[in-house]
Amino acid sequence: MATEESYLQRMSDEIHPARSRAVRTDKQGGGAARSFPILQALRRMLPPVIAFIVFVGGWEIIVKLMGVPPYILPKPSDIIAARGRECTRPVGIRDYDHQRSGARVPA
């Protein structure tokens, strides 16, 4: 019986080996991120915003340089201009409900 328990213990250790936990340390050293939560949020949000700007800018430049027709791939600036021309106010759920029912939307 004792050998069976020691065998099961060894099997358990092989399947789930004990791991030492890493000690969490403050990367800034002074705790600056804790005292300024806005800076912490900015640090977290800035990379995706920069990536979006680079993506849209690259899209604009590539379409312009390659001379792609707008009906195949419009430039982001064309999309924004069309949105401004065709929609005088934002489209919302209220507008969608009125369009389905056939009622007129008050201005």
List its traits.
single chain, 107 residues, mainly alpha, 5 helices, elongated
Q: How would you concisely characterize the structure shown here?
A:
The chain has 107 residues and is mainly α.
Number of helices: 5
The secondary structure category is mainly alpha
Helix-strand topology string: HHHHH
- The first-to-last residue Cα distance is 85 Å
Rg: 29 Å
- As a percent range, the share of helical residues equals 55-70%
Mean pLDDT: 75
Q: Which residue ranges are poorly predicted, with pLDDT under 50 across at least 5 consecutive positions? A: none
Record field, number of beta strands:
0
How would you describe the overall organization of this protein?
- There is one protein chain.
- The N and C termini lie far apart (85 Å).
- This protein has helices spanning 2-15, 32-35, 37-66, 76-86, 93-101.
- By secondary structure, the protein is an all-alpha fold.
- The mean pLDDT is 75.
- The protein is built from five helices and no strands.
Describe the protein's topology.
Layout: H1 2-15, H2 32-35, H3 37-66, H4 76-86, H5 93-101
